[in-house]
Design brief:
By secondary structure, the chain is an alpha+beta fold. It has helices spanning 2-14, 34-50, 98-112, 161-185, 191-208, 212-224, 226-242; strands at residues 58-66, 80-88, 118-120, 123-130, 139-141, 146-149. It contains 7 helices and 6 strands. The protein is globular and about 55 Å long. The chain has 2 domains: 18-149, no CATH class; 161-242, no CATH class. The protein has a 6-stranded mixed beta sheet.
Length: 245
Amino acid sequence: MNKIISMKDTCIRLLTPRETLDRTLFDEHNKMYPEIRKQLFEQADFVVKKTIAGIPGLKVHDICLNGSSASYFYKDNSDIDVKIEVHNDGCNFLTKKDEDLIRFMGYMKTALLPNHKVRLNNRFVDLKLNSFQFEIMGLYSVLHDKWVIEPKKDIVSHLDADELMEEYTKRYYIIKNHLNEITQSGEILTLKGIKNLEKYYTDIYLTGISDVREFIIFKMLKYRGVLKDIQKIFVENLKKNLTIE
């Protein structure tokens, strides 16, 4: 019961805008502070140089602040999410599919920067390599020092907390049951099962960025920890399959 109450509180918070943008990142004109912008750019540049720099055909198109810190729905300790947008302009060993590029860059970052952690003003900076520019709440270009997508306070005003809770609860148990099934059946012990789980997570993520209602439900699933459960099962079984006895 406490978890249900807690998730209802989380849902209400996700639907309640703050009066201003995060004043530790933006001034009264909603412009990013120069020093913050400089630090975020330097950290993104470090990630690029350690991973994709020098790979023919891959080019950085933009570096953007996204997520709750680029919106009116942040917490005081919200992660600072930075998306490094990379385009494939002719890399000869990758297809033109976004998902292939995202998967490749994810493997690169995991392999080359496995323990890379960055903090800014005692907050975690989550730097991700991505291939497309899309955001529900807001998007601020660190590279060009301007808003790409202006954040809005009323973006969730049409949503109902009770309806969201009902849908979130349904999806939570669908995911938990799916994880139990593939674990008990042994499907996850095979490379095919691991690949299917990766697609399962990707589908949840892509649904979560399709519109603001789906985004809120995705955030609730993330806060509850079930998405981390998927990632944990994926990583553990991938390691087992790649281990040579």
